[in-house]
Structure formats: C-alpha cells, structure tokens
Specification:
By secondary structure, this protein is mainly α. 84% of the residues lie in helices and 0% in strands. The mean pLDDT is 85.
Length: 165
C-alpha cells in the first residue's frame, strides 16, 4: 500500500541526506581546523556528536517514533548496554576520523575509508560466499583506483629532495 511507498520515500530521503552529509563532513572538519588552529580534536568530536544527537532526536520526533524508541529502552534495559557500547565505538571512531583529518587531510581520510570499505566488501564476499558480479568487482576496483590517484596526485610533481608532505 501507500504506507510502504511512504516508508521507502522517507528511507530514500534519509539515505540521500546521509550520503550528502557523510561526503561533506571531512571537508567541513578540515575547514574548521584551518579556520580555528587551536581547535582540539575532542572539541570538534563533541560538537559533531551534539549535532548528530540533535538531528537524530528531531528525525525521531518528526516521524513520531521518539516515544516508541524511549519506551523500548524502558522495557528492555539490557539494550542500554548495547547502546552504550555502540555509542562508545562511534565516539572513538569519530575521534579517530577527526584526528586523521586534522593531521593528514580529508583526501587521506577518504582513501582510508574507501580502502576499508573495499576490503570489507571483498572479505564479506569471500567469508560468506556472497556472489559478486564481475561488474561489481570492476566498479570497486575503479572507485579504489580513482581515490588512490586523487590521493597521490600531489606527489606526482614531487622530485627527490623536495618536501612533499
């Protein structure tokens, strides 16, 4: 019915929003570090966590499921431990992402993230015998090569004895 189309539409909008903000975040973090050289990685991580929590709360409230989500946690307090572990892992990951961007820039971070995704896809296909079409393998390879070429481009004109980093 229309409910499934509406749900799919909301899911598509949320996915597109995630992709947009996920691609903008490293560059915005790099700009923040450039404009505020004294900004600590922990401060930026905390600021991003506050924004993410606020957006999540607003989305849950707008969809009318905030009370349902809180009710679930009240009914199943054991889920709080899982939520805590997931939150700590997420906070540590965000801290490491911000640290990488501050010290190496968004391009290096993108290369690391893309490499991790490519390895994850290949390992999943191998370990769980998922079928990966030749087209999917070629697409993974092309994306990885493009990101790698972009990351290595600044070093292409570097000569021996120059400081390239």
């Amino acid at each position: 019915g229309s409910l499934s189309y509406e749900g799919a539409g909301i899911g598509l909008v949320l996915l597109l929003g995630f992709l947009l903000f996920d691609s903008l975040t490293p560059h915005l973090q790099d700009k923040a570090f450039e404009s505020e050289p004294t900004l600590a990685v922990v401060q930026l991580t905390f600021g991003m966590a506050v924004v993410a929590a606020t957006v999540s709360g607003v989305v849950l409230a707008a969809l009318g499921i905030l009370t349902t989500s809180v009710g679930f946690l009240v009914e199943h307090p054991e889920a709080l431990l899982h939520l805590l572990v997931l939150s700590l892992a997420s906070a540590l990951t965000q801290f490491l992402i911000s640290h990488t961007i501050r010290h190496f820039g968004p391009v290096v971070f993108t290369l690391i993230a893309t490499t991790r995704q490519a390895i994850s896809v290949v390992l999943s296909a191998v370990l769980f015998q998922h079928h990966m079409s030749a087209l999917a393998a070629v697409a993974c390879l092309i994306v990885f090569c493009m990101v790698l070429a972009r990351a290595l481009r600044p070093f292409a004109s570097c000569t021996i004895g120059d400081e390239c980093l």
